[in-house]
UniProtKB/TrEMBL annotation:
The lineage of its organism: Eukaryota, Metazoa, Ecdysozoa, Arthropoda, Hexapoda. It comes from the Eukaryota. It is found in: Membrane. The chain crosses the membrane at residues 26-48, 54-75, 87-108, 120-143. It comes from Orchesella cincta (Springtail). This is Organic cation transporter protein. Keywords: Membrane, Transmembrane, Transmembrane helix.
Length: 157
């Protein structure tokens, strides 16, 4: 369901970022992310988890994809490859650190059933902690300027 939300959100936020600008697209996505995120942690059942994960994923391309385009389009062609890799690096490192923390937290002797029974409360608390950090995205919205290429296109259009 999460990947279906990304599939639905990508073309919509691509169009929104072209029409309204990169910063407004990031702001709309951040609002969706901050509102839908706590609902995931507060979900009373599996159906609600799937719905809220879809909403969370729907806003995700507007933050990640649009930020990537915003970062890349201000650079010259010779720097775009390196900048694209460096932009993705914190995302990959975050996944690896999260995996290592899970390995340290859970004993390797756990069976699958025991793992599922013991991870639900910790999963909800870890999601809650991660989503409490989401409002910091509003701070980054205030730092950047609109993309120069988008401003030129709007001016010439």
């Amino acid at each position: 369901m999460y990947m279906f939300g990304i599939l639905c959100g990508s073309p919509i936020f691509g169009a929104v970022s072209d029409k309204l600008g990169r910063k407004k697209s990031i702001l709309i996505s951040t609002i969706i992310f901050v509102l839908a995120g706590p609902l995931v942690a507060l979900s009373p059942n599996f159906t609600f988890v799937m719905i809220t994960r879809f909403l969370l994923a729907f806003g995700s391309p507007g933050i990640y994809g649009t930020s990537f385009v915003l970062a890349i389009e201000v650079l010259g062609p010779s720097w775009r490859g390196l900048a694209g890799n460096l932009f993705c690096l914190p995302f990959a490192v975050g996944y690896m650190v999260r995996f290592l923390l899970c390995c340290l937290y859970f004993s390797p002797a756990l069976t699958c059933e025991t793992f599922l029974c013991t991870t639900l409360p910790s999963w909800l608390s870890s999601v809650s902690v991660l989503l409490l950090l989401s409002p910091r995205l509003f701070f980054f919205f205030c730092l950047g300027e609109s993309a120069p290429r988008w401003l030129l296109r709007i001016r010439d259009g």
